[in-house]
Amino acid sequence: MSGQDLIDAGMSQGKWFRDALEAANRVLSDGGSTTDALAVARGYQPGPTLPLKAPNDVLIHMNIRAEDAFEQDNIEKVSATMRELARTPVVRAAAIMPDACPSGPVGTIPVGGVVASEAIHPGMHSADICCSMAISIFPGVEPKALLDAVHAVTHFGPGGRPRGAQIKPSEATLAAFRENPLLKEIISVGIDHFATQGDGNHFAYVGQMKSTGETALVTHHGSRAPGARLYDRGMKIANRFREELSPETHRENAWIPADSEEGDMYWSALQTIRQWTKENHYAIHDMTAEKLAAKVSDRFWNEHNFVFRKSDGLFYHGKGATPAFDDWAEDATDLTIIPLNMAEPILIVRGSNAAHGLGFSPHGAGRNFSRTAHMRRLGEEFGADSRGLSPNNIAAVMERETSGLDARFFSGIPDISELPSAYKNAANVRSQIEHYGLAEIIDEVIPYGSIMAGDWQKNAPWRRKREQR
């Protein structure tokens, strides 16, 4: 029996033909009739595809308000992309946080977006799986000493630690990598990138607790290359299901059915990446403590780019959204961490499990402008030429935005696209957290200084060649 026989029998051609033909021809080889063989083949035919939902079928909870024209434009874009995303057949509910901002083509989950679904969507936690916050309290340690110590032991920028300076995750985490088909081939990457913080908006921040005056270290980063590799594999799996189950669905919103073998495998891999990331934070904190010969009196952490499964059986995807519901993880405390910008306090909050937030709170003060748009605005303000901001311009921006702070850049070159003016007004975000009842602010970490990657690409070989041309 050939594929043409199946087509002649009224079946639509697809990848399933191969398995169907193998089964049908086994029936014929065993003496069965053509009718019996065609009946077996039809059993391999996929069911009807799922259409997109109608616009406005899914309620989107808006926990954001515009304070100016720029934010109004931002809200309209965020709302449009979430309305398109909510047409995905398996999506059940959505919410937008006060720090929301677009993060891709229309239909892509925005930063500050929460989506409840019947399935797992890799595109809704993004490549920076488990981007998260961790805090350790260092009683009796001066802020400058703590910032100096973390600067000496951490690693920002591309790639991992150099050979000979690598630090291994725990044996339990490495064993979990070996046991999962999606992770076992990237164990070496998990070692290379361990105890590193990446670039972009990731940071090590030192300050003092408002309540006690004790010095604290707060780190912000995700799962680095291991998470990015898992994301790539998850998107490929999800897209195969999308092509079969719902071709109309945006590629960014493709899903992995929870009850499939692939769903079990991916869910397990996510938990391993989560454990890797938690260990990654605390490895940096512990090396800092060792550098100082100091003790840590308290610590906790939380992710804000992840997927959580609630008792209702749905998967809650937070893209730049902090869990604020009870027992969101086995290691959950009743407190979570919300940064705003390097010049503002980091908020320590207790979640309120607000229904209109789907049980989430913001993850920080998101952007109203992309990095490129922000740099263009700064260029117009400071009179930059075609080569961009001059060193004097950059010094002026730094003085205006980081005065009184020990603001450091690991590469030695400031990344002014990450300075406070790049982000939404912190007071407005804080006000909206309280206005919408998304969390209760319990304490604050008052800033002393911070470290970010900086503009590590400034002197990259490819950039120097381009400038020379």
UniProtKB/TrEMBL annotation:
Residue numbers binding Mn(2+) 1: H202
Single GO BP term: RNA processing
The keyword GTP-binding appears for this protein: yes
EC number of the protein: 6.5.1.8
Keywords: GTP-binding, Ligase, Manganese, Metal-binding, Nucleotide-binding, RNA repair
Leading EC class: ligase
Cofactor(s) needed: Mn(2+)
Name of the featured protein: 3'-phosphate/5'-hydroxy nucleic acid ligase
Origin species: Pararhizobium polonicum
